[in-house]
Amino acid sequence: MTSKQNNLKILFSTSEAHPLIKTGGLADVAGALPAALLNLGCDVRVVLPAYGDILKKQPSMEAVAEMYLPGVPGMVTLYATCLGDSPVEVLLVDHPSAFAREGNPYLDGDGEVWPDNAERFALFSKVVQRIALDQAQLDWKPDVVHCNDWQTALVPALLRQQPLAPPSLFTIHNLAYQGLFPQSTFNALSLPAALWSPDALEFHGQLSFIKGGLVFADCINTVSAQYANEIQTPEMGYGLEGLLQFRKNVLSGIVNGIDDSVWNPKTDALICQNYTSRTLSKKKANKTALQKRYKLPVEEDVFMLGFIGRLVEQKGIDLIIEFLKTIENQAMQFCLLGSGDKKFEAALLRLAGENPKQLGVTIGYDEVIAHQIEAGVDAFLMPSRFEPCGLNQLYSLRYGTIPIVHNVGGLADTVIDVTDESIANSTATGFVFDQPTVTSLGEAINRAQKRYRKPRTWHKLVRNGMNMDYSWHKSAQEYLKLYQFLQQEREAQKSIQTIKLLKE
Ligand code: ADP
């Protein structure tokens, strides 16, 4: 059933949600999926820590509940607000000593993880548990609790301790981040002692937050089908592949969607010229604007490549750096927006200094430039070594910018390689390469550049991509099916228990 009448109550717990706070793809998902679920009739509430940056932006909010948690000094306050312009209700968990600091939710100003992250997200998870059990003075009990990544992975473990708790779904947005801490942290968090076991939160002598989700959630999903398979292998399972294989009957993949109100070249207010697949010639004005912004020579015919993202090995930024050393004197430009590992930032700035006519580099985080790159470049590079879903290739498809991607995870699931056959049957949308090497990346870029020089074929590719449906509506329906499955299972369990009690 996917009608408006489903009435399911969903508590969506997350450590970031656009537009309130964002460091990466999780925020995009948490900012859009709840609204899509609301459209399907769900009563969905998002719960999020009240970070200092959020409180600054939302000075007047209504406090809807207050609570004390055992072992936690001071009171926790819940504030209610909305998710941007959408009517989705957000509960902000305010505990000033844990969250009221400025900057990144996970890192301090020097890029180091906050030393008390375990305490902060354990506290958050305990509050989510309270809400889930209707013990937060809200008079609202969810049918399903949807948890995301390690920061909320303790929630399924805590819920499992309570007989009347709702079922949970745990979504893995990136298995590389697991929330690993020493055993002493487990002791300090006042968690149920039984959770210290290899069958629970212990992972080779350490406390693993993510195992809370992997072991105890009633269902698990990742953000693409391919990644759901990959994490069951030793190469990409981080030692958790055995557990994931064990749970494979409840493990699925649901690809992320695009928030049409944020990423749509027809209406995007952050780009210089709006366009659609029918008015493609207008896209060029965005290329010119981008070349000016990046102080690159304004040339219409130069093949312009882009990259946006975290400058870390996962994203294959080292491969891009090696490739950029080879492009001198080619009719090619490249512009980048990102921040991360200092050694990659320095290497990119150095290269841009040496080759200012072809390379433009902005180190930092900037929503406006991100939109302008998607609209302005001809092709977008994503040589990620692994990629649970990836959003920029979806945005690229939407903006008529051809993705050039490594054949992994969500990239493999969402981009269809250009071959004579896929061009003929109008399915080709991008260039896919098989090895995470600079040679393989370079070959794919060469293939793309050759096609770029044949405008008719290129425009066909562009239109194929722009016409793909990566709306959240489709993916939200998949999530709804999972929630309904969980609720039905829970109802069935309750009936069995009632029959047993009656027989006794
Ligand atoms: P991940 O979550 O692994 O970082 P995703 O591709 O899933 O990667 O999502 C990244 C999101 O963050 C995209 O919306 C991307 O545009 C955005 N993003 C990443 N880095 C920056 C940046 N420096 N400035 C603006 N947006 C960024």
Account of the protein in words:
The protein is α/β, with parallel strands linked by helices and 504 residues long. It has 2 domains: 9-257 and 473-503, Rossmann fold (3-Layer(aba) Sandwich), CATH 3.40.50; 280-466, 3-Layer(aba) Sandwich (Rossmann fold), CATH 3.40.50. It has 19 helices and 18 strands. It has helices spanning 25-39, 52-57, 96-99, 117-132, 154-159, 183-188, 209-216, 225-230, 241-246, 283-293, 317-324, 342-354, 367-376, 392-398, 409-414, 420-424, 438-452, 455-466, 472-503, and strands at residues 9-13, 43-49, 62-67, 76-82, 89-94, 144-148, 168-172, 180-181, 202-203, 206-208, 219-222, 251-253, 303-311, 332-340, 359-363, 379-382, 402-406, 431-433. The strands form 3 sheets. It has a 9-stranded mixed beta sheet with strand order 3-4-5-2-1-6-7-11-12, with helices on both faces. Strands 15-14-13-16-17-18 form a 6-stranded parallel beta sheet, sandwiched between helices. A 3-stranded antiparallel beta sheet has the order 8-10-9. Helix 10 (283-293) packs across helix 13 and helix 11 (317-324) runs parallel beside helix 12. The chain is globular, with a radius of gyration of 23 Å. It starts with 8 loop residues before the first strand and ends with a helix. The structure holds adenosine-5'-diphosphate. Residues 24-25, 28, 174, 308-310, 337-339, 365-367, 370, 389-392 line the site of adenosine-5'-diphosphate.
CATH superfamily label of the largest domain: Glycogen Phosphorylase B
- Quaternary: single chain
The radius of gyration computed from the alpha-carbon positions, rounded to a whole number of angstroms, is 23 Å
Average of pLDDT: 95
- Can you list the strand order of the major beta sheet? 3-4-5-2-1-6-7-11-12
Spans of at least 5 consecutive residues whose pLDDT stays below 50 are none
